[in-house]
Amino acid sequence: MDFNLDNGIAVLERTPATLRSMLHGLPAAWTEATEGPDTWSPFVVVGHLIHGERTDWIPRAEIILAQGANRQFTPYDRFAQFTESQGKTLAQLLDEFARLRARNLQTLASWQLTDAALSLEGQHPALGAVTLRQLLACWVAHDLGHIVQVARVMAKQYRDAIGPWTAYLSVVK
Amino acid sequence: MDFNLDNGIAVLERTPATLRSMLHGLPAAWTEATEGPDTWSPFVVVGHLIHGERTDWIPRAEIILAQGANRQFTPYDRFAQFTESQGKTLAQLLDEFARLRARNLQTLASWQLTDAALSLEGQHPALGAVTLRQLLACWVAHDLGHIVQVARVMAKQYRDAIGPWTAYLSVVK
Question: Which of A14, A129, B96, B163 is the most exposed place for a label (fewest CB within 10 A)?
């Protein structure tokens, strides 16, 4: 599928409600579960998405749109949430994510991006030249990847509990 | 994690709203997308979950609880939704799933299952003896596996659109 701004936004605007539906009020046995050492719980994932709203997608899009001399993105700190989420409840994080996402989508809409604008490039610190179109598509796929992760982390908690059904449910492995 | 009835129900009762948040009103380019021939779209997945509500989880639990001479489950028709969903909109399917799930969770609660009841066994047509506890855990993991699938199917549509980011986003592969 080619990237289409309206279709991409349709996913981006749904992610906060999706995560709220999945996680709000759920026992900590689920929301703090992981896939093992150095893997992320649903709680950690929501904090990571918040950090992306603050520092990644829109700031990178702004660097591209400015087309300044230095179009190099700041590297994404994949571990910021371990300090930034400290002392917060999951309910607070879900609210914060929803608020930041709504604001960022307003910003995105305000740009009234043309095809030409979507083809402008920035410099990813590791991947090299990327277009605004690719950045926005990545924002969508990144959301979906973390929804996959949250559901998979939870499913794996029942790897033993489902007994012989492990033969059928590849998600628990 | 051991199966715990309250924690399992906490997931089961959230699945309809999770799928509604993800899919309701989303363009068909997403909801009818697949991972290739003979794979399922989000629309097909919701129909499959409806079929499970009608014919699988609660009917199988009833077979176990009855402890009759024949405790063999009816095989689960994994393709029923291709006919049963015909002519229906995704919005109708999401409503139907939510209604059936709510009714089934009322039935489950009405049984006031004890640990002893959860240890009763039925016969899976392929897997042999399984307990009610394993069946209910499987219901939960099955939901989560299909949430994983829906988000993964959608993410894969952007495999090419994200350009060099495919190196980082394993979900699109």
Answer: A129
